[in-house]
Design a protein that fits this description.
Length: 146
């Protein structure tokens, strides 16, 4: 499957090691992750060379092509929220994981969309277990089996 990975870039990089584990797990599972570079320490340098219009058009194309979205939302980010909302409007399965002790926007935690999966976690291992369960429920056409 093609998975759109979303995480904070300019809002803070405190979860960078978790971002890397998520992308590694996705790629190890044979998934295509066009946004894998977002998990790297060089992301700020890589994204500086792309202007805002190009970024928007590129990311919306990747989002449209994705079978599902995986978002780490522990660190607030306007862009991540926008991508989640857009993906939900497209009826794509969305996995939002976050550290259990963090306060997450009620606009996300209160969302009852059937394609949204919230995954609070206490450890990276717990999060990865939830991620694998999510992926097991999503088929290649982007539908969640209940």
């Amino acid at each position: 499957m093609q998975i759109y990975f979303s995480c904070s870039i300019t809002g803070g990089r405190n979860e960078e090691s978790t971002y890397q584990k998520i992308v590694q797990a996705l790629e190890a599972g044979g998934h295509i992750v066009p946004t894998a570079h977002l998990s790297t320490p060089q992301v700020m340098e890589l994204e500086q060379v792309v202007d805002p219009v190009q970024t928007y058009e590129r990311d919306m194309h990747w989002l449209q092509e994705a079978d599902a979205v995986v978002a780490e939302v522990s660190t607030p980010s306007h862009g991540v929220g926008y991508e989640i909302a857009t993906a939900l409007q497209m009826r794509k399965p969305v996995f939002c994981c976050y550290h259990r002790q963090r306060r997450i926007s009620k606009i996300i935690t209160g969302n009852t969309s059937p394609t949204l999966v919230l995954a609070p976690y206490s450890s990276d291992e717990e999060m990865l277990d939830q991620l694998h369960a999510f992926l097991a429920k999503v088929n290649g056409s982007g539908h969640i089996f209940c």
